[in-house]
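Sequence of Iron-sulfur cluster carrier protein (Sulfidibacter corallicola).
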Amino acid sequence: MAKRYRDIVGDGGSDVDGQLEQLRHRLSSRLASIRHVVAVMSGKGGVGKSTLTTNLAAGLAMKGHAVGVADADIYGPSLARMLGVAERRPKPGRDGVAPPRTVLDIKVMSMALFLEDAQAPVVFRGPSREAFTWKGMLEMHALREFLADTDWGELDYLLIDLPPGTNQFATLHDLIRPAGSLVVSLPNRLSREVVGRSLVLARQVLKAPMLGVVENMAGYFCNGCLSRQPLFDRQAEADYDGLPILGRIPFDPRFVDACDAGRPYLLDYADAPPGQDLMGLCDRLCDRLATVASAKEPCL
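Predicted 3D structure, token representation.
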């Protein structure tokens, strides 16, 4: 006989609490072999966050670190294409799902790897009238599977590329606490204002150290005259509420070609000025993580 809501005592015999505890334990066990989990976030789209994540992963791998990338953008996944593994599929293994690896041995997990048609949208099936009640749970379940069911092995760094905006902050907090969060912005007023608002929410929800800010498209690199030119009007020095700026990366048109080719920019242009800036960012990120870990730095 069907029960009304007020007739149910506890969880109605489904042992929801027990199931959630098992999932948390599996996730905790999986991440125990990963030294640093870093969330890469932005307050708005169009700042080049995924391109930065791609090259940050490449730079860390080129420095000899074991790296994995989880694309947390369920509806607009792009990292598999940028990292050159879009045509490969995860394979079942003895200890979970084996993720595809890039030419730099970066392990990648993304919703795009499960789509038979790259042009097909990701749509969760369910009653549309109650979508607001179940959609968030399905998104959390998908992200949990990416993290808990993937055989990441031993990693030095797992980068989680969050979708634009702030919707996934609560989801990530319910699953794990990252070693820190890296914020991507643009050197213009609009982006800084939006990023500033997202920083407030990130501190309240993620409760993980904010590692610093990367200003993307900080000028552009001219291949013809081999110089850096301004891309935006000169603005006052940014103040991200005390967060250090870990890097200012100029735009290079070859970033676009590299993304389309599924080959990180750093593989071919590490010696170009933008490449040198990216490699320097990798060093500063590693140093910042070490400082936060050793000092047990509170959330900024």
